[in-house]
Amino acid sequence: MTLPPPPASGVPTPAFFLAGGTGISAETLGIMIIKQFPSVPFNVRKIPFITTVERAQEIVVLMDAVRTETVQPLVFSTVADEAVRAVLQQTTCAFIDLFGSHLDTVERVLHVNAAHNVGSIHGVGDQGLYEARMKAIDYAMEHDDAQSVKKLDQADLILIAPSRCGKTPTSMYLALQHGLKVANYPLVEEDFESHQLPAPIRAYPSKCFGITSTAARLSQVRGERRPGSRYASMAQVTYELRRAETLYAMHRIPYVSSASMSVEEMAALILQSMENGPR
Predict the structure, then answer these.
(1) Which residues contribute to the annotated binding site for ADP?
(2) Within the chain, what is the greatest distance between any pair of CA atoms?
(3) Given a cut of 50, is residue 110 above it in pLDDT?
């Protein structure tokens, strides 16, 4: 395939994320790759549930219509079905097969043919895993922002942080993607003054993981919710963040900053900390 010349500066490169299922894997892997080219603007589009040859043919027409003499779209695919994948590979765009290109290698090593089962890729085929994730989500919702302090002994993890540091999205991500029962608990003024963990979680320091941020970022986030308030002032957020980090250090609680990290990156660090065992 002859590639077109580089696009004019500032012209976004189309990037398609194709999948036979939800598209989470294709999007995650594709974004991880295109982020390695920060100087290039991208126009991304996820197309999930491509399960038939007819749908694949429609997608090929759609993608090829975007290609011009100066614009070469990138296509990232995790489609498992061989017939559907064969059609998608007929595109004139640059096709990056995130699934099939590695499957042959694994088959050769294991001496077993792959099932090409989309359900198993996303965990739906494992009913036990699916039910565990649903229970974890229910647990995270019930224990969001200290709404409930019951069954904290059942928590795999307890996230603690000043308000608006990112406890809820991190809790939900860990529940949905990893099936962890995560409670999250806000740190408030009395906790900073006493230097003690909040009473309901005081018995579980080994389950705790802290989140912090930068004063500028936290002030901005709080300001969107309560503009001009003491709650969002630089003085207040600076005080809370310093006290929170002191509290984490006193109780040997690991922590991560949400200021410049995605939820996925934070989750990976938290999981790594959990794997390292008790502190």
Answers:
(1) 161-168
(2) 68
(3) yes
